[in-house]
Write a structure and sequence with these properties.
This protein starts with 14 loop residues before the first helix and ends in a 14-residue tail after the last strand. By secondary structure, the protein is α+β, with helices and mostly antiparallel strands. It has one helix spanning 15-28; strands at residues 33-39, 45-50.
Length: 64
């Protein structure tokens, strides 16, 4: 059985990798709705990925 990795786990994570991962998810799962909920303090989009109709909020903005 082969393993298909959509999101790499063996690299340092950057904003450009985040964008590539979001695009990869969107191409694999076209039913996802992806939009921006605002801007970070660095002026980068804060992305929202909507799956279905229930509301769940996960923030990856909390630092060590």
């Amino acid at each position: 059985m082969s393993v298909f990795n959509i999101v790499p786990t063996n690299t340092n994570y950057t904003y450009s990798i985040l964008i590539k991962n979001i695009n990869s998810l969107k191409s694999r799962y076209p039913f996802l709705e992806i939009f921006s909920s605002g801007k970070s303090v660095l002026g980068k989009d804060i992305h929202v990925i909507k799956i279905g109709s229930k509301e769940v909020f996960y923030s990856g903005a909390i630092h060590r």
